[in-house]
Amino acid sequence: xxxxxxxxxxxxMHGSLAFARDMMAGLKSGLPNDPGFDVxxxxxxxxxxxxxxxxxxxxYCGAQNLSEYDDGAVTGEVSAAMLQDLGCDMVLVGHSxxxxxxxxxxxEVAKKFAQAIKHNLTPVLCVGESLVQRQSEQxxxxxxxxxxxxxxxxxxxGLASGVIAYEPVWAIGTGETASAAQAQEVHQFIRxxxxxxxxxxxxxxxxLYGGSCKGSNAHELFSMPDVDGGLIGGASLTxxxxxxxxxxxxxxxxxxx
Length: 257
Description:
By secondary structure, this protein is of the alpha/beta class. It has a single domain, classed as TIM Barrel (Alpha-Beta Barrel). It is about 45% helix and about 15% strand. An 8-stranded parallel β-sheet has the order 7-6-5-4-3-2-1-8. α3 (about 80-85) links the parallel β3 (about 60-65) and β4. α10 (about 215-225) packs parallel to α11.
């Protein structure tokens, strides 16, 4: 089944209003017309409005997090309904930095995933293992537990409404990158496990790689049969670096893959 590549830039806690405007202007002039791949950006909350109102046509905009609650006395949180009302298309759930720094557990992540699909946002479910877990050969068990929690909450049909992003924690912001073969091994595992529940959904769902992806390795990573694009961190913070990755996705979308 042909799955359209997705290049998603997670800006994390970077940027300013001027940065957001400049990035959108750069993408407008640098992206191909009617690309055969999807592009998304995930700015901080306070820059979402700026991006949504200045982004090139066809680019998706997403938030980096959302509340597990509909509304109420949860100061500092932002609901899925609010994001949808603003014009967001997507939202990250369960990013490793949220899991580690804010102690988000898989059950909470699953509730956030459910909130996203309830309000017609596409959730990007981030999963991945730490270096210690990889060294102790727990990668598959850890990754599947994180996905299973979402399946338990929303079922396979609900999971199919989202995207999965495999982000080995040991390769985020470290300069380390899983080799294309290492990424493919985990992506293939995820897809095979999903297939045991529903083969059609398994073949349809997009699985991104996140972890120090850049222009120099994007082609090799995205060429893997079960890698459907990337969740990009540092390389999404300059137009040149992000477009270099998009260029590789464009080549593959035109028939290299």
